[in-house]
Amino acid sequence: MHLPPDWQNTFDSYNAAVTRRQFFRRTGTGLGVAALASLLGDRALAASASSAATLQTAMTEPWKIAPKAKRAIYISLIGAPSQLDLFDYKPALEGRFKEDLKDWLAGQGERLTGMTAGQAAFPLAPTRFKFAQHGPSGMWISELLPNIAKMADDLCFIRSMKTDAINHEPANQLVYTGSMQNGKASIGSWLSYGLGTLNKDLPAFVVLHARHSSPFSNVQAISSRLWGSAYLPGKHAGVAFRPQGDPVLFLNDAPGVPRELRRQMLDGLGELNRRSYEQIGDPEIQTRTQQYEMAFRMQTSVPELADLSGESAATYELYGEEARTRGTFASSALMARRLVERGVRFVQIFHRGWDQHGTLPRDLASQCKDVDRACYGLVQDLKQRGMLDDTLVIWGGEFGRTVYCQGTLTETNYGRDHHPRCFTIWMAGGGVKGGVVHGETDEMSYNIVKDPVHVRDLHATILQLMGIDHERLSFKFQGLDQRLTGVLPAQVIKPILA
Questions:
Q1: Who contacts 28 (Cβ-Cβ below 8 Å, separation ≥6)?
Q2: Which of 2, 47, 281, 283 has the smallest C-beta neighbourhood within 10 Å, fewest atoms?
């Protein structure tokens, strides 16, 4: 490679050049403070040191409010579990088996998917699973979730969730990034950006992928968009821990490269990046340096985190013996507890295979067996450790399932299509009331008749519980103030707040 004789001068000149964007980035804070001081006049001079610090915080982080929760675990069931077979009990449907709903659907203005739009009939499919009431609250829960039923009074059920999307990819993007469009930051990234980290040796946002045990399930593909940071600085993206082998690649030093030498290399690289940042002002340079340092610290913190040998027999009794096997949902739930225990702000567990268009009784039962005991174990483990009060747990999918059958309906078998008009999620801990049900659907679990909750409302509530005003947490991108809840109305679900 041949460089021109004056290549060094050219490089220095490029670095020294100040673009319009860099000028305002460098001077914006100073100009803003000067303008504010001119407006406040003598009041600014009279403010105490503590008031000045409070003012500075209010100016730099105006979205922060008093939190109920310090951390959150989101159990994301990809494919959309059936509310009719798990939580939304409709006993009156039992006597209407195989009733054709075609004419009734026409009056609902229903948007059908391509998978059922061509059906000659839409036979009503009551659930074949038994329901019972549990706890002093009398919560109706399916026999498929006997362990979750045992903690009914710890849970807050929202039976009136609704969404705008009828297909998986846009629905998942809406639930986990606040928009059906690509290129939006995920909820975990927003929490990392707005609140920062509680442990400098671990990421603020960690993603766990739990394998499903049923070989028959229709498994939806998902992408890193669901845990990406988009326009937010890259350090706020979710870090996906692998279910097999080392949780993170390259935890071990390369052969012949001792830890001390790597430390020297990073120090030298950090100095070069510092000089480049001073000259160019690109924030991605700082992000890169921070990620290098995080990776170095994780070489010590992650092996300790992943070592489950110190967990007690009582812990495995809670989560189940599957918790000893890496990659299972039970193991992921236990790892989630260990992560939040060590200061990780947001943990997301993805469990796929909940898209039962056919053979629902077999596949849904298998999926529930995967998660039931470990979900109970996770909530009770947090409770026993005194962590549930400030740890928010969320459980749910991206939309609901139809009351009519997709395909052939028999006494023992049926499937259900996508249904965006209503579905059920539950939450626990972190400032949420236990043993309550919010919202109600009609006798068909088809339309919401009381207290509708849009996905945006759920996001606003999660942010509120974590100590963030959803209307004030924003990030300037492409000339717009981007927000998780977007520009459409979003309301905090106040009746469920403890």
A1: none
A2: 2
